């Protein structure tokens, strides 16, 4: 049995990545209730997107969608299969750092809300907070970041993300305090923001 990482190691070229997408497509088709094939499919699509590879339609890649969109869809399906599957949650959290994700599919929003509700200590609350932030729902974003912090999330990320939200809400002094607190307490993830 090959793992996602093993297949992606084979995929150092386009043909290998195409083979990985095909294998994960087939695995997801045969076992849609398992998170692993969806997660592997997402990783392969993200790598193709990083390489700016031409998009090819497949079983789980719609015409006109980007590799990134396909990866986000696959990550959502991974979490729909198992809301406690932390690798998919963490990958989504990393993908949602940039602003401008206000148009995520409603189905993904529901999956993330379910994951955050069933696993309050997971990174799902970080993802949820970033989703709310991008939709300019400041109070909901701050509440989700607070739950992430309460679940032992990275205090630096919480401070910096909260600062972004507070700034967008016009609370500049609170934003500065949150930012400097976050920067002072930042772990590896917080320092990358």
Name its key features.
single chain, 193 residues, mainly alpha, 11 helices
Number of helices: 11
User: Secondary-structure element sequence?
Assistant: HHHHHHHHHHH
> How does the helix and strand content classify structurally?
mainly alpha
Mean pLDDT reading: 82
Q: Helical proportion?
A: 55-70%
Strand content: under 5%
SSE layout and pairings?
Layout lengths: L3 H7 L3 H17 L4 H16 L16 H15 L4 H10 L10 H13 L5 H11 L3 H13 L4 H14 L3 H13 L3 H4 L2
Helix pairs in contact: 1-2, 2-3, 3-4, 4-5, 4-6, 5-7, 6-7, 7-8, 7-9, 8-9, 9-10
Task: Describe what is shown at a glance.
With 193 residues, the protein is mainly α.
Structural write-up:
The chain is mostly helical. The protein has eleven helices and no strands. α7 packs parallel to α9 (155-168). The chain is elongated. The model has no long low-confidence stretch (mean pLDDT 82).
């Amino acid at each position: 049995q090959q793992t996602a990482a093993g297949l992606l190691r084979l995929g150092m070229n386009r043909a290998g990545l195409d083979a990985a997408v095909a294998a994960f497509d087939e695995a997801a088709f045969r076992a849609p209730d398992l998170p692993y094939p969806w997660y592997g499919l997402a990783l392969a699509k993200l790598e193709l997107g990083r390489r700016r590879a031409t998009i090819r339609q497949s079983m789980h890649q719609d015409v006109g969608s980007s590799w990134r969109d396909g990866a986000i869809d696959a990550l959502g399906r991974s979490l729909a299969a198992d809301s406690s599957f932390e690798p998919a949650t963490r990958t989504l959290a990393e993908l949602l750092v940039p602003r401008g994700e206000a148009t995520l599919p409603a189905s993904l929003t529901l999956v993330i809300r379910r994951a955050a509700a069933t696993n309050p200590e997971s990174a799902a609350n970080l993802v949820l907070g970033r989703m709310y932030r991008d939709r300019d729902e400041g109070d909901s974003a701050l509440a989700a970041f607070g739950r992430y912090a309460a679940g032992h999330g990275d205090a630096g990320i919480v401070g910096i993300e909260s600062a972004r939200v507070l700034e967008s809400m016009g609370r500049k002094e609170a934003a500065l305090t949150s930012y400097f607190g976050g920067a002072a307490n930042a772990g590896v993830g917080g320092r990358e923001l």
